[in-house]
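User: quick one, sequence for these tokens?
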């Protein structure tokens, strides 16, 4: 159920409707839009009696949302969601967002060397795994808290926003404390208790599509987070399992327009995990932007041949700079522009510093 407020409804009227929904034993989710505020109602098993709600002051109409996902749906919020970060960076909206960095944080030296190069090329976000969900228990599991500390130093030094994965409740509490954007990996996309816990955080969340998740299952993962009151959700297509064996996964770019049709949430593309091959990463990054994605998350390594994880799909820093130039050229064709970070050499040169 969805309560659509009149365009001129006051904050007091919106609050009164939320209070009324709570008194009925349900949960109100006020989602302000450009034209009007809509209030999603969750927690109800069946129909909510709409009569009383419709008679409240400031209410335009009460409508039934028929889709399984509600708060993630465009029925509840027509305008695209834009997630904003402290350094002015955004994900969603006109500007393309770029998240770059190694699969895993391996050492302070490695992380700083890569961060310096991706910042110089204009990335605004730095990624790096501290807790790694590895197929083998014998593979590198991540440096944990030490990696989070290194990334916090990188934020201070380069002004990059930090993105890192939480794999369980324990790592989530630490990631939420240290990072700017909490990543939930493909393997945890349907870890519902973890999703609920992320929903109780007040920090943006990046949810990667599960390897065999349908569009609806993907959006239901977002819904789990949003139903707990965290509305800053970003989706990420990272490839799905198919019969194809020329690549690690099949990057399903067709989900971008399909998601944008039904959901207001931003969607990024991960051409690294989506292909598993360095030589395919640039073409698929270009294709992702051309298909309308809100940005790219990509793995970059200064010595990929000796990387602790995902070396074969990691770009060399020079290739990342090329990727930035290429997507910058594609951006205007799809009504976008590339926002380069403050420490970007290109920004500094252009401004004559
Ligand atoms: C990663 O980003 O390093 C990662 C493990 O991604 P995914 O969950 O998409 O496999
Ligand atoms: Mn990886």
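Assistant:
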């Amino acid at each position: 159920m969805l309560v659509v407020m009149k365009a001129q409804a006051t904050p007091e009227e919106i609050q009164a409707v939320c209070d009324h929904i709570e008194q009925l034993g349900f949960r109100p989710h006020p989602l302000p839009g450009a034209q009007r505020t809509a209030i999603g109602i969750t927690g109800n098993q069946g129909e909510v009696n709409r009569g009383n709600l419709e008679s409240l002051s400031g209410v335009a109409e009460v409508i039934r949302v028929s889709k399984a996902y509600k708060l993630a749906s465009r029925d509840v919020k027509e305008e695209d969601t834009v997630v904003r970060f402290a350094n002015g960076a955004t994900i969603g909206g006109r500007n393309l967002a770029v998240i770059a960095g190694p699969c895993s944080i391996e050492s302070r030296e490695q992380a700083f060397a890569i961060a310096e190069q991706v910042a110089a090329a204009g990335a605004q976000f730095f990624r790096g795994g501290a807790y790694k969900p590895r197929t083998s228990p014998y593979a590198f599991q991540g440096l944990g808290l030490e990696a989070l500390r290194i990334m916090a130093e990188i934020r201070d030094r380069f002004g990059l926003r930090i993105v890192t994965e939480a794999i369980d409740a324990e790592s989530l509490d630490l990631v939420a404390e240290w990072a700017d954007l909490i990543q939930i990996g493909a393997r945890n996309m349907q870890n519902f208790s973890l999703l609920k816990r992320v929903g109780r955080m007040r920090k943006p969340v990046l949810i990667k599509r599960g390897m065999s998740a349908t569009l609806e299952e993907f959006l239901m993962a977002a819904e789990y987070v949003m139903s707990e009151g965290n509305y800053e959700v970003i989706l990420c297509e990272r490839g799905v399992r198919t019969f194809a064996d020329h690549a690690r996964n099949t990057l399903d770019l067709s989900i971008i327009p399909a998601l944008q049709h039904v959901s207001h949430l931003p969607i990024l593309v991960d051409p690294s995990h989506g292909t598993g091959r360095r030589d395919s990463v640039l073409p698929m990054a270009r294709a992702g932007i051309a298909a309308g994605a809100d940005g790219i998350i990509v793995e970059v390594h200064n010595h990929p041949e000796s990387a602790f994880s995902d070396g074969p799909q990691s770009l060399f820093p020079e290739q990342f700079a090329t990727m930035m130039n290429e997507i910058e050229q594609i951006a205007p064709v799809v009504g976008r522009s590339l926002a380069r970070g403050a420490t970007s050499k290109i920004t500094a040169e252009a401004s004559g510093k």
